[in-house]
């Protein structure tokens, strides 16, 4: 469908230079980035989790900025019909479109081209993440800690999805706001449940934060509950945004992307500088997910050891206990930050090693070159393991990753035999449990584990 839409309350005015950066005669790379992210937002609820397929299905889709005397408009052509009701674009999707425009312009002009932000240093990357979140108005200094980050797969069973809603409901009853990767499945369920809990408690101005990045948004389009969306430049800054903003993290069953998130956070928590820093981390699911978390726990034990296992709790089939433990953990976080003078809205004290910030390009060469051995500190091994799973995600759902697999074949993952054996078992379990792609789609592995 074709339409013209007007911003509501923000981005009503753009300079000629800003428009020119997005829209030049050759439709440059920044425009292509905006187009692909905008298409992903418009494709909300389609049941599609393949970035390459999305772009090919809507080859005729176009979007451009129209400057008028009273401000700007976005003109879309050949957009997915599911984004409209009776010919009018759904309000939430419209807001998400302008959030994408806001973030892409800000990142290009104020982060990537800003001489005062050095993305080659840990401090510079953290500063960039802070500025992007602040520009999106996600940092709320007057709110006591209450933001729970929920991780988990986009491809989960109906029973697991219902469980995520129950956990979200009990978190909502306790006044917790929710932050997820913004997509379907375990990213949507906690928000939906929390919305009911908030309604029962008559809590106004509830926050349902969606945090994404250009490579993944096509596979995980923002779900309808998200009322604040932010796009980070890459997966590493997206992950940092989660752990800097969140006061506790709950992990539901998922696939390679969820394993990547777990390893990212465990690697950070294993850094010696973070030894005393409280960070509630709970793995949970229904009774049917007990074996899933046993496999995750065993993989962590084999690769990272007992210290890593001590950083989380596993709670099976008890949404109320999950909410209670989150609430108790956040009280500890609040007391620690108050004692040490750290902000409630952004965890400045958390030490994030450069290995967790440097963008990883999942090429075939880089995947083969990962240092997957135990002759290194546990937190650095976690960083390399995280990259391995990040590559699998790219090969599964990201446009560039899918095209690389089509051209060069499987990613090859190699390392210590014990680690490779554990990784092979874990990835194989994700395939057998249909956690790599949405239900109904045959999964062809994009990787080969070399033992």
UniProtKB/TrEMBL annotation:
E.C. designation(s): 3.2.2.4
Database matches in Pfam families: DUF4478 (PF14793), Lysine_decarbox (PF03641), PpnN_C (PF11892)
GO MF annotation terms: AMP nucleosidase activity
A GO cellular component annotation in the UniProt record: cytosol
Organism, scientific name: Undibacterium baiyunense
Name of the featured protein: AMP nucleosidase
Domain Pyrimidine/purine nucleotide 5'-monophosphate nucleosidase C-terminal per the UniProt entry, residue ranges: 330-450
Catalytic activity: AMP + H2O = D-ribose 5-phosphate + adenine
Pyrimidine/purine nucleotide 5'-monophosphate nucleosidase N-terminal domain location: 4-110
Matches recorded under Gene3D superfamilies: 3.40.50.450, MoCo carrier protein-like (3.30.1850.10)
NCBIfam families recorded: Nsidase_PpnN
């Amino acid at each position: 469908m074709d339409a013209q839409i007007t911003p509501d309350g923000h981005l009503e005015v753009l300079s000629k230079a800003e428009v020119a950066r997005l829209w030049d005669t050759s439709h440059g790379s920044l425009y292509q980035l905006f187009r692909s992210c905008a298409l992903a937002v418009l494709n909300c609820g389609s049941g599609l989790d393949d970035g390459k397929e999305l772009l090919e299905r809507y080859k005729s889709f176009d979007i451009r900025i129209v400057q008028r005397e009273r401000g700007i408009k976005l003109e879309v052509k050949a957009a997915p019909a599911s984004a409209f009701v009776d010919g009018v674009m759904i309000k939430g999707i419209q807001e998400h479109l302008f959030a994408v425009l806001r973030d892409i312009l800000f990142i290009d002009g104020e982060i990537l081209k800003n001489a005062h932000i050095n993305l080659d240093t840990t401090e510079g990357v953290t500063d960039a993440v802070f500025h992007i979140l602040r520009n999106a108005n996600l940092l709320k200094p007057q709110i006591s800690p209450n933001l729970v980050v929920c991780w988990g797969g986009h491809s989960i069973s109906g029973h697991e999805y219902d469980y995520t809603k129950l956990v979200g409901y009990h978190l909502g009853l306790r006044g917790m706001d929710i932050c997820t990767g913004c997509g379907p499945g375990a990213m949507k369920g906690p928000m939906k449940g929390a919305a009911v809990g908030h309604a029962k408690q008559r809590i106004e101005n509830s926050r349902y934060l969606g945090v994404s990045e250009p490579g993944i948004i096509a596979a995980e389009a923002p779900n309808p509950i998200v009322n604040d969306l932010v796009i980070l430049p890459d997966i590493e800054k997206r992950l940092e945004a989660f752990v800097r903003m969140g006061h506790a993290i709950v992990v539901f069953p998922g696939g390679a992307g969820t394993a990547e998130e777990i390893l990212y956070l465990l690697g950070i928590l294993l850094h010696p500088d973070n030894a005393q820093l409280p960070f509630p981390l709970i793995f949970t699911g229904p009774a049917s997910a007990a074996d899933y978390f046993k496999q995750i726990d065993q993989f962590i034990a084999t690769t990272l050891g007992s210290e890593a296992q001590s950083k989380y709790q596993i709670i099976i089939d008890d949404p109320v206990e999950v909410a209670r433990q989150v609430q108790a953990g956040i009280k500890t976080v609040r007391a620690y930050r108050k004692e040490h003078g750290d902000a409630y809205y952004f965890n400045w004290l958390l030490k994030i090693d450069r290995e967790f910030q440097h963008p990883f390009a999942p090429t075939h060469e880089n995947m083969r070159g990962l240092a997957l051995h135990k002759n290194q500190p546990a937190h650095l091994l976690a960083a390399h393991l995280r990259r391995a799973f990040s590559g699998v995600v790219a090969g599964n759902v990201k446009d560039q990753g899918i095209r690389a697999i089509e051209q060069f074949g499987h990613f090859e993952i190699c390392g210590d035999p014990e680690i490779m054996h554990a990784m092979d078992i874990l990835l194989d379990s994700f395939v057998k449990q249909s956690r790599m792609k949405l239900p109904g789609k045959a999964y062809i592995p994009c990787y080969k584990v070399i033992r």
